[in-house]
Write a structure and sequence with these properties.
- The structure is a single chain.
- By secondary structure, the chain is an alpha/beta fold.
- It has 3 domains: 153 residues, 3-Layer(aba) Sandwich (Rossmann fold); 162 residues, Dihydrodipicolinate Reductase, domain 2 (2-Layer Sandwich), CATH 3.30.360.10; 84 residues, ACT domain (Alpha-Beta Plaits), CATH 3.30.70.260.
- 36% of the residues lie in helices and 26% in strands.
- It has 14 helices and 16 strands.
- Strands 7, 8, 9, 10, 11, 12, 13, 14, 15 and 16 form a 10-stranded mixed β-sheet that branches.
- A hairpin with a 7-residue loop joins strand 14 and strand 15.
- The longest helix is centred in the last third of the chain and has 21 residues.
- The protein binds NADP nicotinamide-adenine-dinucleotide phosphate (NAP).
Length: 433
């Protein structure tokens, strides 16, 4: 039987699970591919800590031994960090080693350069685990839909925020309570900023869009808004109106140019993403020949993510056995042009927090009329005359630039409180509203 040696960097949540998977399911690689996988090196930050590994695996501090091993064709980077593993991945690719990584931060910042470096050196850079944990969405976009032109990707790609919004919806928790619960259960980091700000989702949808559209989407071009402004009141009103609030990541081709966004949005209850609950992820892809197709599963966690790392390893082993190198793109990726965000169109939901005084409805309807925005419905919730009231307005499809103008005019007026905000509405995939 053929034997392939791999070097593993990182033995944390994902690295530990991946190592255990290799041990527990070694027979699967042997049965399906006829290859045995050996892990002669495990690189960690602190090699003095005891690690539960087989006698054939040497635990070392830092990754130099892996780079210097000339009989080791695959490096698995599961250390994390946008910058720290960059020298490792660059050096491994330059020395003709294939690299598997789960590191979306590294790829988002340096993926274009690293993919080009892999191609130059005739090796592969694989990253199934970097987006949506265990869901094989990278394979779907780069292989399964190869004969299709992808029109749009609409997804819930961050498990932390989906867990928080689900708990706010189903248990009526406040944002702070839901976040504390997510942290306790291990679904949110001690510092949740990257998740709740939408930054993590922006890195992931940038990668998915780049794969789907064949051009590199600069993360700086992704319109990114987080979930910290979403209140329990928004959730209650939207639910009563037939929507769930979700952090939605989208990459769409508009006049042939990508529009890539991440923001909390109203999702109609009949939309496939509305049923994606808790820490799960879901991605709806629309392509010209297949039409809509939906992918759902666990977006994070050691075992689901290790499952994707193993899938990449299986692909590389097949390639090594058949002496083939497969790449997600035929050539270098051009930089994507960005569709102007102001020209994005959507239905919208406004939540104005207002003083209880005459003329507020007239102000809102007047500004909407002046800016060409067609109002669908207005609801006011007025509990106590001495307190501000909540005015909820749903409007017909409009351009983002019109909505920004109307919102800034309305919120500049006397009697409108700064807590006012607006959200966008995702259309039903069936072409309904
Ligand atoms: N956790 C998830 O659910 C998940 C899901 C999808 C993708 N990912 C990605 O997977 C990667 C790993 O995440 P994780 O949660 O497994 O991280 P983690 O639990 O913090 O583990 C990191 C591991 O890397 C090792 N390490 C760190 N710096 C190193 C260095 N300079 N040299 C050698 N080893 C080093 C650490 O060594 P010590 O043990 O000595 O500290 C530790 O074993 C990240 O890129 C993350 O974004 C994670």
């Amino acid at each position: 039987m053929d034997r392939v040696r791999i070097g593993l960097v990182g033995f944390g949540t994902v690295g530990g699970s991946f190592y255990r998977l290799l041990t527990a399911n070694a027979g699967e690689f042997e049965r399906r591919l006829g290859v045995a996988v050996d892990v002669p090196w495990l690189a960690v930050r602190d090699a003095s800590r005891p690690r539960n590994v087989a006698p054939g695996t040497r635990v070392v501090q830092g990754w130099q031994a892996i780079l210097d091993d000339n009989d080791l064709p695959i490096v698995v980077e599961l250390a994390g960090g946008a910058e720290a593993p960059l020298p490792l991945v660059r050096e491994a690719l330059s020395r003709g080693k294939h690299v598997i990584t789960a590191n979306k931060a590294l790829l988002s910042a340096h993926g274009r350069e690293l993919l080009a470096l892999a191609a130059e050196n005739g090796v592969e850079l694989k990253f199934e685990a970097a987006v949506c944990g265990g869901i094989p969405i990278i394979k779907v976009l780069s292989e399964s839909l190869l004969g299709n032109r992808v029109r749009s990707i609409v997804g819930i790609v961050n498990g932390t925020t989906n867990y928080i919004l689900t708990r706010m919806t189903e248990e009526r928790l406040s944002f702070a309570e839901a976040l504390a619960e997510a942290q306790k259960k291990g679904f949110a980091e001690a510092d949740p900023t990257l998740d709740v700000s939408g930054g993590d989702a922006a890195q992931k949808i940038g990668l998915l869009g780049s794969l789907a559209f064949g051009c590199w989407i600069d993360p700086a071009c992704v319109l990114t808004e987080g979930i910290t402004t979403v209140e329990q009141k928004d959730i209650e009103f939207c639910q009563a109106s037939g929507f769930q609030i979700k952090l939605v990541a989208q990459a769409r081709l508009m006049d042939g140019v990508p529009l890539v966004t991440v923001f909390p949005a109203l999702v109609p209850l009949d939309h496939p993403l509305a049923g994606v609950r808790n820490e799960f992820n879901g991605v709806l892809v629309d392509s010209d020949y297949l039409g809509p197709s939906m992918y759902e599963g666990r977006g994070a966690g050691g075992n689901p993510t290790a499952s994707s790392v193993a899938s990449d390893l299986g692909d590389l082993l097949k390639g090594i056995l058949s002496k083939q190198v497969r790449r997600p793109f035929a050539g270098a990726l051009p930089l994507a042009a960005a569709f102007p965000q102001g020209r994005m169109r959507s239905r919208y939901y406004f939540h104005f927090v207002t003083a209880n005084r005459p003329g507020i409805w007239a102000l809102v309807t007047g500004v909407c009329a002046e800016t060409g925005i067609n109002i669908e419905s207005v609801h006011q919730k007025w509990e106590d005359k001495s307190k501000p009231s909540d005015l909820y307005v749903l409007v017909d499809e409009a351009e983002e630039s019109q909505v920004r103008l109307a919102f800034s005019r309305i919120t500049a007026a006397e009697g409108i409180r700064p807590a006012s905000h607006y959200l966008r509405i995702v259309p039903s995939p069936a072409g309904g509203r």
